[in-house]
Amino acid sequence: QVQLVESGGARVQPGGSLRLSCKGSGLTLEYYAIGWFRQAPGKEREGIACISSSDDSTYYADSVKGRFTISRDRAKNMVYLRMNNVKPEDTAVYLCAASRGELLDGNWRQFLTPHEYDHWGQGTQVTVPS
Fold it and tell me: What tens digit of pLDDT does each residue of 12-65 get?
């Protein structure tokens, strides 16, 4: 059974840090481009970061650039999202997703849209109080 499982969500004070994890089960993540998305109540799903399968190139939405870092541990079959200097507007359910598509410099913005992805996790809640 193919699964992506997120963990690490928590309530964290503004300015704090958090690391989310995405583990593959039945899925070897190193062969996939991986994206992190978030969805707040009443809002559309937002792509915030993605990492390529070929060389671990990383790309970010403007809303998180300079604060969040996506990384991959191939040996552990894990992808992480390090969140620094969190803000109340970061409150959302965070989901990871895996794509069989080839993420390149020329198409990375497509990989911040949900339709590029084939497998999704259930999400983990991050809450930053105002």
Answer: 999 999 999 999 999 999 999 999 999 999 999 999 999 999 999 999 999 999
How many Å apart are CA 5 and CA 29, to the nearest integer?
A: 12
pLDDT digits (tens, 9 = 90+) for 71-124: 999 999 999 999 999 999 999 999 999 999 999 999 999 999 999 999 999 999
The SS3 of residue 95 is strand
User: Dihedrals φ, ψ of 108, to 5°?
Assistant: -65, -30
Of 106, 83, 89, give the one whose Cα is nearest residue 40: 89
72 vs 53: CA distance, rounded Å = 9
Sort 95 into a burial class: Cβ within 10 Å, 0-12 / 13-18 / 19+. Answer: buried
Strand partners, 45: none
Three-state DSSP class for 22? strand
Residue 89 CB partners (closer than 8 Å, separation 6+): 63, 128
